[in-house]
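Chain A, query sequence.
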Amino acid sequence: MEDEDPPQLLDVPSSDDEEAGSSRDLYDRPKIPLTLLTGYLGAGKSTLLDYILKEEHGYKIAVCMNDFGDTTDIEAKSLTLSDPNSQSTTTEFLSLPNGCLCCSFKDMGIAAIEEMVANAPGGIDWVMVELTGVADPGPIVRSFWANEEMGDLILDGVVCVVDSRNVLKQLAEQREGDEINECQKQVACADVILLNKLDLVTPEQMKEVESTIRTINPTLRVHHTTQSKAPLSDLFNLRAFSDPTALTSTKSTTNHVQNHDHDHSSDDCSHPSHAQTHTNGISTILIPLPTLNQKQYFRLNEFLESILWDNRYPISKKPSPEILRSKGYIRLDDGREYVLQGVADLFELKELPGSEQKEGQGKVVFIGKNVGEEVKVALKEFVGI
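Chain A, predicted structure.
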């Protein structure tokens, strides 16, 4: 394989931790934040969007839906926007009484969303884009995270709505060739999970669902909801691709599920080992890192290039697991700190400004297919820790 430079990502501007009263201060950056909304069919995405479009929350949110069909009962004014400096097609959307906008995401690219935001009367505080229930969010996350067309937009995070009553069956669905199914990918790529339909499951069932979800992705922020109702503070201002807070608070060292011999004949299968039945080999390993010197930091970068680009371990040359998400918090002995974010083969190590530095031990998380102790051993050997 020819040598090449790592994929280049947009530099994410830092922000001040000041509080103010305007709606834009919900996310104190000059760019307009964008949230991707994913979730399996019937999980409750449309119900959540309907709630956002009707609620008097005081924010001007542009909601890009898959279909206008779910908004037919909302009193709205149909508007058409066009860029006078462009020959591109116009953008049609609904203007809602609470100040929000609603448009169809079908065949709508990043440039079109950027155009809509730039020309929306009164401005926009936030953009939420709904993905289809069977979409693999990985490639879409990559395109919104690393696309220069984002302009005045910045990806804030990925919110996934889960049907708590049916998610275990959805996670266990088999695909040809033992491929990772859509529900597994959605959970693995998410930054926030709404465990919806709380009223349809028992506390014991909810415990099992949350245990399984955290087995796949232990860095998630989890919220329980009924009819998809959640405060906007649970969905927005995640800074998922620049802030390591969620990772530094993750305490478990591994969520990789090994084979177990004990019996699961009981209906109560909330033991974490039972999650293997539902996740089809999707697992996570969290590797603690000591404070690194400069050489070790460079070696860590080389290790990431090898397993994410070349799909092999750098020393043994053996194939490495399929990685869906990578996250990390790295501390150097000269006082610098870095945050790692990766989606599939695209990753970024970004230095944290002094004002955003965190307390806590360094660590790296890999989420993927059959991710286990072999990754940890290979990393420690190559980096020299």
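The chain has two domains: 23-246, 281-383. The chain is about 25% helix and 25% strand.
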